[in-house]
């Protein structure tokens, strides 16, 4: 699977409190999640790498993608297929010099100017727009609203060929229709799945709410937000 084929992207911590990381990511992938990013600032590097081994093995079994948050050194060591960066993280050029040539790089954007810059950056493979709504997973970050989602959608010329982008921030089953109506075809979620009693079912419901590209083809055996 390529990042451009994906529709449902999940960020999760290592679920230390629940002690069910392996089971959780397996259920999320089985339900249709296409990408899982491990985002847990509390982890030491060795613990993060250990969790990423579990994530990588599970993703490979399902034919899906997995991502490292922020750290190019961790992405390089773990041979991650995806590295996600924030506006204040390592530069894309510096990250690209460290990671594997095939690793996709993503970037968070929070304004029209940042969206435009992301579209002009040849080192990027995808970008995220948000947070659409305020979310406790990003305390202190102002919500950008649906206007920025609409702007990102307006910048697409050929939707299935342009740089892929995801709406992120406060998206769940009660709000996903609003971002879809505003032009988003891909979403990033956190609590909508991490706090669900049935992660696989939550993923399935979110997938069902997303538009499906006409030409995308799934190569994995698990359910996916990519059309079969």
UniProtKB/TrEMBL annotation:
Coiled coil: none annotated. Its cofactor is Mg(2+). InterPro entries: Aldolase_TIM (IPR013785), ThiamineP_synth_sf (IPR036206), ThiamineP_synth_TenI (IPR022998), TMP_synthase (IPR034291). GO terms for cellular component: cytoplasm. CDD domains: TMP_TenI. The keyword Metal-binding applies. One of its GO terms (molecular function) is thiamine-phosphate diphosphorylase activity. It catalyses: 4-methyl-5-(2-phosphooxyethyl)-thiazole + 4-amino-2-methyl-5-(diphosphooxymethyl)pyrimidine + H(+) = thiamine phosphate + diphosphate; 2-[(2R,5Z)-2-carboxy-4-methylthiazol-5(2H)-ylidene]ethyl phosphate + 4-amino-2-methyl-5-(diphosphooxymethyl)pyrimidine + 2 H(+) = thiamine phosphate + CO2 + diphosphate; 2-(2-carboxy-4-methylthiazol-5-yl)ethyl phosphate + 4-amino-2-methyl-5-(diphosphooxymethyl)pyrimidine + 2 H(+) = thiamine phosphate + CO2 + diphosphate. Residues 8-193 form the Thiamine phosphate synthase/TenI domain. 2-[(2R,5Z)-2-carboxy-4-methylthiazol-5(2H)-ylidene]ethyl phosphate binds at residues 135-137, 170. 4-amino-2-methyl-5-(diphosphooxymethyl)pyrimidine binds at residues 69, 108, 138. Pathway: Cofactor biosynthesis; thiamine diphosphate biosynthesis; thiamine phosphate from 4-amino-2-methyl-5-diphosphomethylpyrimidine and 4-methyl-5-(2-phosphoethyl)-thiazole: step 1/1. Its EC number is 2.5.1.3. Binds 1 Mg(2+) ion per subunit. GO terms for biological process: thiamine biosynthetic process; thiamine diphosphate biosynthetic process. Keywords: Magnesium, Metal-binding, Thiamine biosynthesis, Transferase. It comes from the Bacteria. SUPFAM superfamilies: Thiamin phosphate synthase (SSF51391). Condenses 4-methyl-5-(beta-hydroxyethyl)thiazole monophosphate (THZ-P) and 2-methyl-4-amino-5-hydroxymethyl pyrimidine pyrophosphate (HMP-PP) to form thiamine monophosphate (TMP). NCBIfam families: thiE (TIGR00693). HAMAP family: TMP_synthase. Belongs to the thiamine-phosphate synthase family. This is Thiamine-phosphate synthase. It comes from Microcella alkalica.
């Amino acid at each position: 699977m390529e990042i451009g084929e994906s529709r449902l992207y999940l960020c999760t911590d290592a679920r230390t409190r629940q002690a069910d990381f392996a089971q959780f990511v397996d259920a999320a992938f089985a339900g249709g999640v296409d990408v899982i990013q491990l985002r847990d600032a509390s982890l030491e590097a060795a613990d993060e790498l250990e969790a990423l081994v579990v994530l990588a093995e599970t993703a490979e079994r399902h034919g899906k993608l997995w991502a490292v948050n922020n750290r190019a050194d961790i992405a390089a060591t773990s041979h991650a297929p995806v590295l996600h960066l924030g506006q204040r993280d390592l530069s894309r050029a510096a990250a690209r010099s460290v990671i594997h040539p095939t690793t996709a790089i993503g970037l968070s954007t929070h304004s029209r100017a940042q969206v435009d810059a992301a579209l002009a950056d040849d080192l990027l493979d995808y970008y995220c727009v948000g947070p659409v709504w305020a979310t406790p997973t990003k305390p202190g970050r102002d919500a950008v609203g649906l206007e920025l989602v609409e702007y990102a959608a307006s910048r697409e010329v050929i939707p299935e060929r342009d740089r892929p982008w995801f709406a992120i921030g406060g998206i769940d089953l009660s709000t996903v229709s609003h971002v879809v109506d505003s032009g988003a075809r891909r979403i990033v979620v956190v609590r909508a799945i991490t706090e669900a009693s049935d992660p696989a079912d939550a993923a399935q419901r979110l997938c069902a709410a997303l538009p499906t590209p006409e030409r995308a083809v799934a190569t994995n055996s698990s359910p996916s937000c990519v059309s079969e």
